[in-house]
Amino acid sequence: MKSLYKTILGTMILIVMSGHANAVLRVETTTQDLAAIAKAIGGQHIEVHSLTLGTRDPHFAVAKPSMIRRVYRADLLLVIGAEMEIGWLPPLLQSARNNRVQPGNPGYLDLSQSVSLLNQIKGPVTRAMGDVHANGNPHYWLDPRNGIRMAKMIALQLEQLDPEHASSYQANFNTFEKTVNLKIIEWRNSLRYLKNKPVIAYHTSFIYLADAFGFNIVNEVEPKPGIAPTISSLSRLISQIKKEQIELLIIEPYYQQRSARYLNEQTGIQIAIIPQSVGARPDIKTYIDLFDSIVKALQLKEAK
Q1: In this structure, which long-range contacts are made by residues 167-171, counting pairs with CB atoms below 8 Å and at least 24 apart in sequence?
Q2: Judging by beta carbons within 10 Å of its beta carbon (0-12, 13-18, 19+), is residue 46 exposed, middle or buried?
């Protein structure tokens, strides 16, 4: 009997020890872009999920029970920040009641702290200005150079939470950094025809993309961020497009395209539908895939 007891006890100890040895960090992210970068850095040592889909506008989400349960179990929460998730993340965190991932604790990482945000607003912000972000434009992941900065910050945080695998996180980051830097050369070469060209965007999402690849966004279809275009605002755009001979309009797939098509009919401006996130299409699974797809979409619109 004692022999049987010792065998059972020994087996239980081995199971517990094995569970600890094979334990992975549970990582939740607010976008699929963050999840893709985290997976590239964390590899087999993390289990990562995104709270939102790349097919949706990340400004808007609903705190579903499944999301609350996942945040409750998380060891690390990665957020875009810069008020991107301000409409839905605070109540989600409150409902999840997980102190590990509350702001200010090691399990909460705001990636906007890793980059220099563009379009920061000085002075008071009012609703009359539209959907603006006082701390800066939050679409910074659309500059691949920022992707490297984000990856570095994630690697450092994973090393802090899981020092046992620090060398693995650092090696994965080095690989990610080298790959992205090489791809940036390739992407810029593919888009060299856009250098210094004027471009119309639908929303204010693409200023980082423009900064990375050297084209100029001279106006948006939305008269103010988040405000639908009107007949008068479209008329002004038509005049600008014709006067400045603007050849390209870029738009995310989740925005209505009626206004873009109207501008195309009136001026001949070409429309490029740009995937804005990992997961925007089923074939866009990694951060590299995202920019490969963006570059391909823009190449299709290359001026003849």
Answers
A1: 168/43, 168/45, 169/41, 169/42, 169/45
A2: buried
How many Å apart are CA 281 and CA 289, to the nearest integer?
10
User: Do residues 172 and 194 both lie within one domain?
Assistant: no
Whether 6 maps to a domain, the answer reads no
Domain assignment of residue 198, given as a range? 188-299
pLDDT tens sequence for the chain (304 residues): 445 444 444 444 443 333 444 579 999 999 999 999 999 999 999 999 999 999 988 888 888 899 999 999 999 999 999 999 999 999 999 999 999 999 999 999 999 999 999 987 776 665 555 565 668 899 999 999 999 999 999 999 999 999 999 999 999 999 999 999 999 999 999 999 999 999 999 999 999 999 999 999 999 999 998 899 999 999 999 999 999 999 999 999 989 999 999 999 999 999 999 999 999 999 999 999 999 999 999 986 554 4
C-alpha distance from residue 232 to each of 212, 262, 304 (Å):
32, 13, 31
In a domain, residue 138? The reply is: yes
Q: Is residue 11 part of a domain?
A: no
Residue 185 burial (CB < 10 Å; 0-12/13-18/19+)? exposed
DSSP 213-231: HT-EEEEESSSSTTPPP-H
For 46, 79, 224, the CA distances from 255, given in Å and listed in that order, are 34, 23, 15
Structurally, how many domains does the chain consist of?
A: 2
What strands lie across the sheet with 46-50, from one edge to the other?
46-50, 25-29, 76-79, 108-110
- Tell me which residue of 117, 116, 25 sits closest to 76, measured CA to CA: 25
* Sheet strand arrangement including 270-273: 216-220, 198-201, 248-251, 270-273
Residue (of 36, 24, 9) closest to 286 by Cα position: 36
